[in-house]
Amino acid sequence: MRSTSHTIRTRTTRPAARQAARAAAAALCAGALALSLTACGGDGNDNDGSSKESGTPTGSTVSLPKLNGQSLEVAAVWTGGEQKNFKKVLAEFEKRTGAKVTFVPAQDPIINFLGSKIAGGQPPDVALLPQPGAIKQAVDKGWAKPLGSAAQEQLKKNYSPGWQDIGKVDGKQYGAYYKAANKSLIWYNAKVFENAGAKEPKTWKDLLGTAQTVYDSGVTPFSVGGADGWTLTDWFENVYLSQAGPDKYDQLAQHKIKWTDPSVKQALTTLAQIWGKKDYLAGGPNGALQTEFPASVTQTFTGGDQPKAGMVFEGDFAQVNIGETKAKVGTDAKVFPFPAVGAGSPVVTGGDAAVVLKDSKAAQALVTFLASPDAATIQAKLGGYLSPNKNVPLSAYPNEVQRTIAKALIASGDDFRFDMSDQAPQAFGGTPGKGEWKDLQDFLKNPKDVAGTQAKLEKDAAAAYGSGS
């Protein structure tokens, strides 16, 4: 399961360099996660659900056509709670339009999945793509269709320019980002921290100290879902962004600097301070490599005050998996921003964009609905979901932790960096058992081999960027 995971500045039209000067503001917004809802100032939304910018009540209903008798298929890689909750959004679309919508479970990499469907003459009408690189590929292959005027109108009303831009290819709008993720969070078992006398860390040095405190109390510090390579790329990206800075981050994302660069060596060496301590990882490196993301979360919040680990790193969507345990978010399960490795805490985001593959009235209507506050508000109320739609009322989110995360995302405007691996060609940054996913899994297994890991990353990146695949 790749949760929004979980974006391509050189492979989409989104400028990269223009955001470099905004890193400080983004870091400040990350800090809001550990503070109150008033941190980071206003987000343009009042608690009554109205938007100061557009003046449009977020409870208003988007205009949708009647589609009685029409059928649609929607493909996404979501599983478990995410899939279940999204189906409730689709049910509302069915109720409003009379269309019949079928959810089609997809596998990573979704482009390969869609390719097989299209080759067989059965493409879904709409697909939720977790990488801008995948949007670009879908456009290049002639699969994706530009969004219609109604969908674009919803995007302009409800999304910041940055979130609109990452759904564009060559200036045309192909994607509507329905789901976002704040991927700069560490969740922790509150009882474990209380028993250990551990405090929420602000810096990487503090995190190492907190880990030792948890370890000394008899609990393994970290749960790592290493069976899913994307979780490891997220670890790297947060360390790299904070340590090397936004300019280097953008350059590496575009492969304008090599993975053999000293900044990559520094980040890997830093990561090894945790990955290299087998007693710090639940099950050790081998156990981590056999643990999928959902289990990495649930094993942190089951077992009372003696879980398999005290902390787990990942995005806000981890709440879906926490919800599968008896732990209550905000009480039993708490969260802090990824600690500052360099000058400030990183803000790394991810997202899933709705893309039309069959240019029909029904497909365009569904994406229009997904770009509206109506659809996002439904899923926000169900938890474990974050929307980049600025007109979703904060009151829709079910707990203060989620409201704080949502407010920080909206307040940051365009001051964020999208997931680096999602910006890469899929062969490097988005394929299980290949490229960056595999190279970092190998590094988790042998974190002493920094130079060898850099060489493998560069070889795989050069091949993927050279072919554009």
Automatic annotation (TrEMBL):
Residues 1-41 form the signal peptide. Keywords: Signal, Transport. Residues 45-65 are annotated as: Disordered. Residues 52-65 have a biased composition (Polar residues). It comes from the Bacteria. Pfam families: SBP_bac_8. Belongs to the bacterial solute-binding protein 1 family. This is Sugar ABC transporter substrate-binding protein.
